[in-house]
């Protein structure tokens, strides 16, 4: 691998994660440079783009692959196919954060295979995916995750709306969901990309079990994962500090930056 040529990075979406990535890339990361940004409303991107040291174009989502070697999806889940497909057909790499959207569009994996592209799912707000993917080389018996979130990080989720579950005034922890990762991805599309990443790393979305609790006393998103396999049994716990968007942890953007650095780093640590 030659490190002489910088990889151009495109960012789709300028929410909390997208803004962090754009600013970090503009500040300088070895082997990488910001190539372009795509947003639905260019007017809302004006302030962020004006502050960059090195200006880059704001382009349509469909055109982003022309300006980038790697595209990071930081957009609403329904836009994942529109963002990913042109990139994969160009034989390039897309980093998907709204990983729950992949469950209904696994044909994108075949598109990547056919055209020589790649889909990367970063660790995001989770931990220990290296251990899970290693365990999956053998036999995993069970994967269970328990998520506890502040109320404001869950309000408005489709599962709550459809089932008329009101958590606005709860005064103690309430379990609001128990089921599979696939069911959680449909019911909580903006909240539970982490469990889908866990499922794809391990035994799949129909065998990975999840509980979700709303806790009015919490200020951080917490996840506890328990895995039992023929190679190891292990448990992991993480407490994530939210961004200004209560559904997204600060570590999510840092996870993407770490994944991007690995693409060009002369030394790579981790599976």
CATH class type of the largest domain: Alpha Beta
CATH topology descriptor of the largest domain:
Rossmann fold
Strand order of the largest sheet: 3-2-1-4-5-6
Report the CATH architecture of the largest domain. Answer: 3-Layer(aba) Sandwich
Report the strand count. Answer: 11
Domain module count: 2
Order of helices and strands: EHEHEEHEHEHEHEHHEEEH
The rounded distance between the terminal residues' Cα atoms is 18 Å
Separate helix tally: 9
Instruction: Specify the biggest β-sheet.
Output: 6 strands, parallel
Structural class by helix and strand composition: alpha/beta
Q: What oligomerization state is this entry in? A: single chain
Overall pLDDT level: 93
Beta fraction of the residues? 15-25%
Rg (CA only): 19 Å
Overall form: globular
- Determine the fraction of residues in helical runs and give it as a percent range: 25-40%
| CATH H-level superfamily of the largest domain | NAD(P)-binding Rossmann-like Domain
Please mark out the parts with pLDDT under 50 across 5 or more consecutive residues, or reply none.
none
Features:
single chain, 271 residues, alpha/beta, Rossmann fold, Dihydrodipicolinate Reductase, domain 2, 2 domains, 6-stranded parallel sheet, 5-stranded mixed sheet, 11 strands, globular
């Amino acid at each position: 691998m030659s490190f002489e040529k910088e990889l151009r990075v495109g960012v789709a979406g300028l929410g909390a994660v997208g803004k962090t990535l754009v600013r970090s890339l503009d500040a300088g990361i070895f082997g990488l440079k910001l190539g372009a940004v795509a947003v639905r409303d260019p007017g809302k991107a004006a302030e962020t783009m004006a502050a960059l040291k090195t200006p880059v174009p704001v382009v349509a989502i469909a055109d982003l692959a022309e300006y980038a070697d790697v595209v990071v999806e930081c957009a609403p889940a329904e836009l994942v196919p529109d963002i990913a497909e042109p990139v994969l057909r160009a034989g390039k790499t897309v980093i998907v954060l709204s990983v729950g959207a992949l469950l209904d569009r696994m044909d994108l994996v075949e598109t990547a295979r056919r055209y020589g592209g790649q889909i990367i799912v970063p660790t995001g707000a989770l931990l220990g995916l290296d251990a899970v993917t290693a365990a999956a080389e053998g036999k995993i018996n069970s994967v269970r995750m328990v998520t506890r979130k502040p109320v404001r990080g869950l309000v408005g989720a489709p599962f709550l709306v459809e089932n008329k579950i009101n958590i606005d005034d709860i005064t103690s922890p309430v379990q609001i969901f128990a089921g599979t990762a696939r069911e959680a991805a449909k019911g909580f599309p903006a909240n539970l990309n982490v469990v889908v990443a866990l499922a794809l790393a391990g035994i799949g979305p129909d065998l990975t079990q999840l509980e979700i609790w709303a806790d009015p006393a919490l200020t951080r998103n917490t996840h506890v994962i328990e895995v039992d396999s023929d190679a190891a049994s292990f448990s992991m716990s993480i407490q994530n500090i939210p961004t200004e968007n209560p559904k997204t942890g600060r570590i999510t953007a840092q996870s993407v930056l770490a994944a991007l650095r690995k693409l060009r780093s002369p030394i790579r640590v981790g599976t």
